[in-house]
Amino acid sequence: MPSAKEILRKFTELKTLPHVAIKVTQLVNDDRSTMQDFEEIIRLDPVLVTRLLRLVNSPYFGLSQKVESISKAVVFAGMKQLRNLVAVEGLRGLFKGEDADFSAPKLWMHSATVAILSGMIAKRIFGKEGEDVFLAGIIHDIGLIVENQIAGEALREACRAYREGKGTLIECERSAIGADHAEVGYLLAKEWGLPQEVLGSIKSHHLGKQVKSVSSTGSILQLAEFMAGKMQYWAIPGPIEPLPPELSQHVKEKVADYKIIIRDLPGEMAKAKELYESDE
Amino acid sequence: MTEPTFDAIFDDLIDADAELQSFLAILDALLPEASMLLVSESGAVLDGARPLAVALPVREKLVREAKATDGFITGKADNGTRCHAISLAKFSAVLVISCTASPEDDWEPGSAIASLLRNTLELALYRQEREMLVADHEQSVRQISILQQQHGKLIEDNYRQYRLNQEREKEYARTLESEIAKQTAELREANVRLEEISRLKSDFLANMSHELRTPMNAIIGFSELLSETPLAEEQLEYARTITQSATSLLTLINDILDLAKIEAGKLELEHQPFDLAEMIDNVVAMFKIPAREKGVVVASTIDSRIPKRIMGDCNRLRQILINLAGNAMKFTEQGGVDIKVAYERSAAGRIVSRFSVRDSGIGIPADRVEAIFEKFTQADGSTTRKYGGTGLGLAICLQLVELMGGHLAVESELGKGSTFFFVIPLEEAPAEIISLQERKEAYREKTGRGGKILLVEDNAVNQRLAGILITREGYEIEVASDGTEALEHLRHQAFDLVLMDVQMPNMDGMEATRRIRAIEADSALRQDYVGLRALKQPLGIVGLTAHARKEDETACYEAGMNGFLTKPIIKAKLTMILGEMMPGISSPKGNDPS
Asked: Model-level pTM greater than 0.90?
């Protein structure tokens, strides 16, 4: 059975990560980079430029004036937003194709929901910047897409086993494929050069126990994953894993907060449409 | 998909009674003297801080009745006090409360106690809802603070990037500066190269003038000589054609060289005294014969206020007038050509004069007036075919007039004629300057001796040509082929004049002239030279050179020559200068064909 690394190697032989996504990620990680550097890279990709302008002018940013220049849009969006936008652009195209056992478009909706929920929790409950957790949300299930490409039949087998209650999804993947999507996704994000917090959260999002403090990217991602699963934003039907007890306790203490988040989620999803909806 | 609710999502961790508990706690705090209990939808009993004991049958009855009505239902607690039950629709629960401080019979709907309790219940419910509002508010505050942080970061980033850009701009300015410096250096170098090329071109021009004039010398000279030999009519015609063609070719060569010199800025005007009237008469005389042949009249007038002798470049002024008069003659079939010098005004010690050449010729169309001053252009293409000419003449005149401080212009009427005119300042010649020519005249008068000429010339063709011309003029001739030979001749013979070629091998004309002048100045040495010892005046030496430039002439005079003749030797010019310089025992013979 192939290891996670082998699966990823086979995948990257088929699909290369968009150059622009890697470059932009490097720029975000570099303190000396300037908005001009971002602008120069984004300018090269007309699709990205259109996306960026549409995003900046969408309700998600809620600006009072229309932004028409790339340089302005770059400044308004900020480095991490740009990175996320580029990541979304790079990933969106991969979530294609569906059948009874596995639906990539549904997985994309799930990822978008988790990303937006994670962002909301980070910002509204912990007062943290939501960009890193958003990215973690968008990318956390990329491992499934990789497996779908490389070991589609085995993945479907795992999905069926999971649906029939033969174990957690991770367990079913491991026995059918030989690796799980958390591990594969982690490796891919590592290759991409994403921040350590994001990498860790991808690896642990099915761990079933609390990883770090409640406000960590990992915990937020677990919470959002759980909530999105409960909301049926989930591509693979099956039993939803319970929240780690520490996180349940946290929710109990913040009932009002979470009620508000759940109340506001549909609105936020609508506002962020530019971020995740496909053009088709 | 239906809107998700908190309860649906967190169903596992929801404690169904948690909300009731919190409500009970709030109510407990609001009513410190009351004891109470809550019966939930499922029938569970939640006790308040101060428990109220109500027996099960009583409680069940109270709950049942309370749910059926809107108001309070009264019952009895276990301790005998009265208690009251009310349904809480929000929780699907029933509250049983006993308040010892309240009057027993005051719980009717609308009573003060009932209203108070109702309001208290509302307050407790509101307080619970307020938690949400507070949480909502707190979330907003957090989000605002993130936005503020991001805003701060944006400003920081902007400033940082502004600094970075400034540095980049400075760097750019530095590169720009060095780039400009580099280009300037390159341009300077190119300029130096161009100046060098220009200098080489001028030198080439000077050499060309020599190279072109030397063969022309032979062609014109020998064709003239040929015309004077006994020839058949046809042969004579051929010989004359050669002369005419060669002469016009020489004119063209001179024009081109002149124009090139002017454009190269190499042309310098002389500033010598000359007789204006005499010069004009010369010009008129030149056109007498062709005018007679065409049946037109050439005339000239000079305003009496213009001084007789003026300073300037006689030859160039003559060139202009000959050119204008020549054109006028060319295009005039009847009537006449009128050369006029009119007085305009006096300014700063100069006499501003208007020179004009008027003809009664074909005139120039208004739209061609500008074009005729252009090089190689005439009034219209057919003009060239009909009247000939190169179109260089006017371009040269225009430039010469400008060098003299004037501007050449034309007034013309088609079919009536044209007037070319220019206004230049003239300066009266000071009385004490006597021209070279006048000195020659004085000298000739004083000596009055015979005619033997020494020709110093290395080129055999030129020796023969000049020899024939001079002999024909009636002078004796001796030939020396370089400066050394010339000195040898002077040692043994006396001569009236030396025609000295400038460019020669061994000893050139300049050096030979300087030696002769040195011998003349040394009374002891002079005795060894038959040709020099008897002379009361310096020997007349006329330079011959193909270089027609002003500096060549000046160099001749500086070497000690007292005359200057350009090659090719034109018979008329030779005759003139011999007439001036020779003591004059023989007057020039034969017809001057020019």
From this structure: no
Q: What is the CATH T-level fold of the domain B271-428, as seen in this structure?
A: Heat Shock Protein 90 (3.30.565)
Chain B 146-175, residues with CB within 8 Å of chain A CB atoms: 146, 149-150, 153-154, 157-158, 160-161, 164-165
pLDDT value for B585: 44
B271-428 has the same fold as B6-109: no
Instruction: State the pLDDT at residue B442.
Output: 47
CATH architecture observed for domain A4-15+96-276: Orthogonal Bundle (1.10)
Residue A221 CB partners (closer than 8 Å, separation 6+): A114, A118, A133, A136, A137, A140, A201, A202, A204, A205
CATH 3.40.50.2300 fits domain B436-581 = yes
CA nearest neighbour of A256 among B10, B388, B78, B322: B10
Q: Do A128 and B135 touch (CB under 8 A)?
A: no
Q: Note the residue count of chain B.
A: 594
User: What's the topology of domain B6-109?
Assistant: Beta-Lactamase (3.30.450)
d(CA B437, CA B13): 134
Residue-level pLDDT at B594:
38
Instruction: Tell me whether residues B132 and A34 touch, CB distance under 8 A.
Output: no
DSSP 3-state helix, strand, coil percentages of chain A (rounded to 5)? 70, 0, 30
Contact list in B for residue A27 (CB cut-off 8 A) is none
Are A160 and A167 a contacting pair, CB within 8 Å? Answer: no
Question: What are the start-end ranges of the E strands in chain A?
Answer: none
Residue B348 banded pLDDT, cuts 50, 70, 90: confident
Residue B62 buriedness (CB in 10 A; 0-12 / 13-18 / 19+)? buried
Two structure tokens written together for A48: 């990205």
Q: Delimit the domains of chain B by residue range.
A: 6-109, 271-428, 436-581
- Residue whose C-alpha is closest to residue B17's, from B40, B48, B51, B35: B40
C-beta of residue A203 within 8 angstroms of C-beta of residue A136:
no
* Mean pLDDT of the B570-588 span: 67
